[in-house]
Amino acid sequence: MYRTGMRALLLILISFLSQFVVVHLGRSSTLGDPQVGFTADRVLVFNGHSYVGRMWNMPGEQRHEQELPSLSPIFILRANSTVGDILLPQLHTAVEFVLPRALLVLGQPDLLGTPVGEETVNGIATTKFAVNKNIPEGHLSGSLWLSRDGIPMRCDGSLTSQKGKVSRVHWELSHIAIGNQDPALFEVPPGYSKLPPEAAATLFGLHLPTRSKH
Predict the structure, then answer these.
(1) What is the DSSP letter of 204?
(2) How far apart are CA 166 and CA 149, in angstroms?
(3) Is residue 210 included in any domain, yes or no?
(4) Is residue 213 part of a domain?
(5) CA-to-CA distance for 157 and 38, rounded, in angstroms?
(6) How many whole angstroms separate alpha carbon 67 and alpha carbon 81?
(7) Range of the domain at 190
(8) Is the Cβ–Cβ distance between 28 and 79 less than 8 Å?
């Protein structure tokens, strides 16, 4: 039961968080490219299942914490790398994961359509963008609300696969606190054992890409 729940959550979070990383000729940036440090409460709803957590951001870096019955995984993403870390504090262990290349298309700059209006989301002024794009995996549609600093305050969307399966996602941030964050939040703590991406299959039954040797 634990492995099944953990595997499902990891797939959902990695898939969704991959939307914030895009690689072009070896360089990366984040969707919206938030230019400020901030913390926020985060709600992620995937096909009706809600996952509540907290995130920290500095330009080019993100940390996402998630509470689960057995573990409290922490996801660390860096915009200059396609390799992230899953921290497991209870085990003093970090597991590397490689963002699936098929999902990186979700962060392409032309993903956003024409601005369709200005709205306030949980006290933050945002611009609402339409999303309507065909990608190799299917069709993306929905809306994304970005603050003037590039903070993705809300996302409502769906991905229709080539086989017609529809996956729906809602993302929303609240209780935004702007300010610089401790650099240590985005690093693997000293003394942690560090495992390669292949370890994800053993620990979580999760099969992710391996790091490129090039």
Answers:
(1) H
(2) 31
(3) no
(4) no
(5) 24
(6) 25
(7) 2-204
(8) yes
Indicate the pTM of the whole model: 0.78
Residue 212 forms part of a structural domain: no
The set of residues, in sequence order, having a beta carbon less than 8 Å from that of 211 and lying 6+ positions away, is: 83, 96, 98, 196, 197
Tokens of residue 44, six digits: 């992620």
Residue 212 DSSP one-character state? P
Would you state the structure tokens that stand for residue 133, as one six-digit string? 């794009």
Q: What's the DSSP call for residue 100?
A: P
- Residue 50 · residue 68 · CB < 8 Å: no
DSSP output for 151-186: -EEEEEEEEEETTS-EEEEEEEEEEEEES---GGGG
CATH code of the domain covering residue 102: 2.50.20.10
149 vs 118, residue with greater confidence: 118
* 29 within domain boundaries: yes
> What is the number of structural domains in the chain?
1
| Angle ∠(54,55,61) on CA atoms, nearest 5 | 165
CB 52 within 8 A of CB 43: yes
User: Cβ distance 60 to 78 under 8 Å?
Assistant: yes
Q: Give pLDDT tens digits for 63-101.
A: 989 877 677 889 888 877 778 888 989 889 998 887 655
Query: In this predicted model, what pLDDT tens digit does every residue of 114-128 receive, in sequence order?
Result: 789 999 999 999 999
Coil, strand or helix at 137: coil
What is the rounded distance in angstroms from the CA atom of residue 104 to the CA atom of residue 109?
11
Alpha helices in 24-175 (DSSP H): none
Q: Which residues are paired to 49 by β-bridges?
A: 46
Select the more confidently predicted residue: 149 or 49.
149
